[in-house]
Amino acid sequence: MLLSDDERTELRDTARRLLADRASSVRVRALLDDERGHDPELWGSMAELGWLAIPIPEHYGGMGAQAADFAVILHELGRQVTPSPMLASIAVGAQALSESANEALAADVVPAVAAGESVLTAALSSGRGSYDSTQQSVRASVANGSIVLDGVSRFVPDAHIANQIVVAASGVDDGVTLALVDRDTPGVTVEVEPTFDRTRRLATVTLSSVAVGADRLLAEPGTATAIHQRLVAIGAIAVVCDAVGAAEHILEMSTEYAKSRVQFGRPIGSFQAVKHHLANMLTDVEASRAAATFAVDALDNGLDVRHAAGVAKSFAGPACARVAATAVQVHGGIGFTWEHDAHLFLKRIDLDEALFGTPKWHREHLARLLIDERFAI
Amino acid sequence: MLDELSALEPFRQEVRTWCSEHVPAGWRVEQAGASHKQFAQFHRWWGAELREGGYFAPHWPTQWGGGGFSLLEQVIIAEELARADAPRNALYQVALYNAGPSILHSGTDEQKERFLRPTINGAVWCQGFSEPNAGSDLASLETRAVRDGDEYVVTGQKVWTSVATEADFCILLVRTDPNAPKRKGITFLLMDMHSPGIEVRPIRQATGQSEFCETFLDQVRVPVANRLGPENEGWAVTNSTLASERGVVIIDLAERFMRNGVAHFIEDIHNWSSETGERLTSDGGVRDLVAERYAETAVLRQLLATMVTNIVRRGGVGNEASIVKLYYSELLQRLMNDAASLQGLDALIERPPVMSAGWETGQWYYDFINSYGWTIGGGTNEIMRNIISERALGLPRDPGVV
Fold it and tell me: Measured between CB atoms, which of B287, B303, B395 is closest to A269?
């Protein structure tokens, strides 16, 4: 299904209105120390509005819309630094199963996820936080048609509230194995780590001798490397969309502040030192928006998604982080306080920059394409 | 990509075919170390080729001999010429992108007839705006024009008048009312460069080349009939000129930057080695830098694609043009600087520069020095930041600047 330009604009306006209220600063702050880390009622509303279904294929109970449509939602969630399992459950979790050759498994799991009744996440990083397919530290061993998982994956988003976890493991034929594991399976432990960004929860997932049947594998053991790489790229593009939304909003807040804060008898926004900060922020925001568009369009047009993620993450990761850092500076003393929201944006954007591969790791992938493979530009 | 753009695929093929048949092979070799005269000669020839193909002034209406192409067709022409590594239409930039659009926008029918015809047939224009004391603060210009019957008598000094030695005409800003507030006393004139009283002296730039000139005006007589727009309202006419300067031109620049800048940089990385004899291609820092510049350039292309989409949908260029200028110029300078520093001492050996190659001659240190033409020219980046913060973000003006 395709959304028209007008429908996409309407989706954005609806999302902005709803989240301005339901993910207002007061409501987001009320969740900073919440054990679940998000508002289940808001999640339910998002499900009712059909936001979760947007990128999910129609045959799994979704809308089958374009990545560009889902990007609108990710952007708006970022604008309000909204706590929600959208990234874990939909952008990456449901995507993993939708891409899987195991259609029976996907048909069994994804419809409930699209409806918001079940939450998924994906453990795609190693115990050291590497998303590289060659570095996965959960080990899979094949035993009587099923596999057994042992090891640790860190920085797994929302694993504490997920019903099921897609786990990436190494150990079979130098390839990645992707398995779907119920969170309450004996041998699975999930421990939330205290992130500076309290609008999100990352957990360490430990697996000891967890047996998984062949029917719970997303692909034959050792053959899921390409899907793993693709999922990491899609996750990277999703956090770029989130960061661009957050950067756009913190720029607006900084601009308003520069217009209203008076020192030396004039608004600080009339001083060139401040103006130039804000002009740089706008340039970074617009260029980051272009980077996100580039990547989302590549997804919709079936182009090389790792290349697209590489460009987007390499550029927009640091650029949005510059915007957030400058925003704190422009706000001066008030921006350094807990009561002001600047730090929430700073931390959200900095986590976006590092999640699903640091810019440096993505740049190394680009270097391989450009230098080693002489990719034609 | 815009659907409208994919519908133009046959047109793209047409332009591509023309390029493959007309873009001269080996012009870079011929233009290496070319004299100013050879440069001008080459460009008059190339301009004529473009004119014959119908690509000399793609953005002008057909009524005045232009291509009458839509914006998207112009984008395609710019992309294809860049892709074919055609020489830039350098001699006619002011004529086609500044003088022409200003006359089209503000000229009388008689002025259009008198000036646009020769321009489309190859008259060269220069721009007499900046002065030694009026750079970023252009509105403070002091060149005086005093009315004497049907003529203005002009005296003063202009600077950064590119290709003035070759020029037939000059778009000239003069002060006609020294008592009015500075933006209210400026008049826009179209001056014949063959008039008595004009002296042109080339300025040698930091690169060693002389593309720019100083132009001294001593009692130069310019007919009142050559005034563009009303007396003392030249500032408004000027603003339409400066906006057109940053239009489609930059699409051509971005395409050339990717192909001749980034792609050549990667080629060179394969050939250079470090002081320890190791290949640069396996140096982590170098790999990181190459990828970063490439990603920035891919983003530049997307920024331009977005700008084009907005122009098509909204029917005009907004603040994106200033943002693109800022982004492009600093990226250009970064890449040239990085490439020169990785090349090492050899980058600092001077070789004859390739004239007409624009901003990417492949001589990295030369290109680095030349890149200041973009961070300073067309409004310094500091001025661009003021413009962006005031027009796009609505920040108050500095009360000290009027």
Answer: B395
Distance CA A238, CA A292 (A): 9
Query: Contact A267/B396, CB-based, under 8 Å?
Result: yes
What's the rounded Cα separation, in Å, for the pair A96 and A219?
Answer: 11
Closest CA–CA distance from residue A212 to any residue of chain B (Å)? 39
Q: Please report which helix (H) or strand (E) contains residue B186, including its range.
A: strand B186-192
Cα B299 to Cα B265: distance, rounded to the nearest angstrom: 18
Instruction: Pick the catalytic residue from B211, B245, B320, B360.
Output: B245
SS3 B398: coil
Of B342, B348, B345, the C-alpha closest to B280 is: B342
Q: Which residue type sits at A11?
A: L
pLDDT at residue number B402: 61
Residues of chain A in contact with residue B298, where contact means CB-CB under 8 angstroms, are 291, 294, 311, 315
Which of A371, A372, A374, A377 should we substitute to test contact with B (largest number of B Cβ atoms within 10 Å)?
A: A371
The residue of chain B nearest to residue A251, with distances taken between CA atoms, is B393
Q: What is the DSSP track for B114-140?
A: IIIHHHHTT--EEEE--BTTBSSSGGG
Average pLDDT, chain A: 97
Q: Which residues contact A246 (CB under 8 A, 6 or more apart)?
A: A78, A79, A81, A320, A324, A345, A348, A349, A352
Tell me the sheet residues that pair with B222.
B152
How high is the pLDDT of residue B360? Answer: 86
Residue B245 appears among annotated catalytic residues:
yes
At residue B6, the pLDDT reads 83
Minimum-distance CB partner of B290 among A289, A291, A367: A367
CB B173 within 8 A of CB B141: yes
Longest CA span, chain B: 75
For chain B, which ranges sit under pLDDT 70? 1-2, 240-247, 315-316, 402
Comparing CB atoms, the residue among B281, B299, B327 nearest residue A371 is B281
pLDDT score for B310: 82
8-state DSSP, B397: P
Q: Could you tell me which chain A residue has the CA closest to the CA of B280? A: A371
Rounded to whole angstroms, the Cα distance separating B350 from A256 reads 50
Question: What does the pLDDT read at residue B167?
Answer: 96
Residues of A with CB under 8 A from a CB of B: 255, 258-259, 266-267, 269-272, 274-276, 278-280, 282-283, 286-287, 289-291, 293-294, 297, 310-311, 314-315, 360, 362-367, 370-372, 377
Cβ neighbours of residue A242 under 8 Å, at least 6 residues apart? A74, A75, A77, A78, A87, A348, A352
What is the mean predicted confidence (pLDDT) over A186-192?
A: 98
Residue B169: how many other CB atoms lie within 10 Å: 21
Mean pLDDT of A40-44: 98
Segment A313-360, tens digit of pLDDT: 999 999 999 999 999 999 999 999 999 999 999 999 999 999 999 999
Chain B CB contacts of A362 under 8 Å are 291
The rounded distance, in Å, linking the Cα atoms of B70 and B391 is 27
Q: Which residue of B327, B382, B396 is in closest CB contact with A269?
A: B396
pLDDT of residue B352: 84
Structure tokens that stand for A173 in this block = 């034929």
Q: Can you tell me the ipTM of this complex?
A: 0.96
Contact assignment for A270 to B384 by CB distance below 8 Å: no
pTM for the model: 0.94
Biggest distance spanned by C-alpha atoms of chain A: 79
Task: Determine, for residues B386 and A272 on separate chains, whether the beta-carbon distance falls below 8 Å.
Answer: yes
Residues of A in contact with B263 (CB under 8 A): 377
For A233-285, write each residue's pLDDT tens digit: 999 999 999 999 999 999 999 999 999 999 999 999 999 999 999 999 999 99
Q: Smallest CA–CA separation between A363 and chain B, in Å?
A: 5
Mapped onto helix, strand or coil, the DSSP state of residue A125 is: coil
Between strands A164-172 and A146-157, the pairing is: unpaired
